[in-house]
Amino acid sequence: MLVVIFASLICQAMRRRPLTDLTGRLDFNWFNCLAIGAGLGTALMLVPATLLWATGQVHFLPNPGGTNLLLSALALFAAVAVTEEVLFRGFIFQRLLDGLGQWPAQALIAALFLLTHVDAIQNAGPIGYLAGVNIFIASLMFGLAFLRTKSLAMPIGIHFAANFVQGSVLGFGVSGSEEQGLLTPRSPGQTGSREEPSA
Labelling 183: which of 84, 90, 190, 198 has CA 20 to 30 A away? Predict the structure, then answer.
């Protein structure tokens, strides 16, 4: 995270522009957008999980050890969201927007985002193509959040909350990595090994 922020500072210094040109001004509106993004990211995971549960596709068991991991998971997913959003929706994306326009910039950054998550696609096995489509669409969504607000706050909020709820609350895998959450998801008839869906 620090390396990405420092590199962004250098790029902005060379252009004689402040870092806030990339991130948006850190004012009340920035933190309001962060909170709205966190709410959207939470809903993005809870709505489909609720539908899966309601239709009997998955059930959730409490994980007594999950609460011990929440603080470290908060820090990890916050760092991941900040790092990836500064990298993918910061300097490179914004220069592409200036040079190529909205949709070429979105497509190129989404392709790069997809390449950096190739492990998640490989770990998904036969449904890897669905994981790839999901990751590509997620990047487009984060980009649209930036375009709508001209700030990284909402993309960071969505990215952080989606990963945190998916992994640390619901117990699903995040980007190909197994997670221990407050809950443990199980498919119908599954009693032993953990389920490892990829997102």
Answer: 84
